[in-house]
Design goal:
With 88 residues, the chain is mostly helical.
């Protein structure tokens, strides 16, 4: 049976740059972020006006994937606030 030292060694090997385990883990993270971005785009973009949509697209082009998700979440929150204000 492998003890704690064996687990540390295995974890160390899997965290090395060329490890296939590390690359698979990184790919899974990227795919998850990509799916979130696509869902938020489909949800938010049709609700925006053409000028606002173009401005958001320009901002998105300059950001990394995680920052794009955060920006889309902010735009969605702003959109919800604007929808709720006229009802009050």
């Amino acid at each position: 049976m492998g003890g704690q030292g064996a687990r540390r060694k295995r974890n160390w090997r899997h965290n090395q740059f060329n490890s296939p385990v590390r690359w698979a883990r990184e790919a899974a993270k990227r795919e998850r972020v990509k799916q979130q971005e696509l869902q938020l785009r489909a949800q938010v973009m049709p609700l925006l006006g053409s000028e606002r949509e173009q401005a958001v697209e320009q901002q998105l082009a300059a950001l990394c994937p995680r920052q794009r998700v955060k920006l889309l979440e902010q735009v969605a929150a702003e959109q919800q606030q604007q929808e709720q204000q006229p009802q009050e």
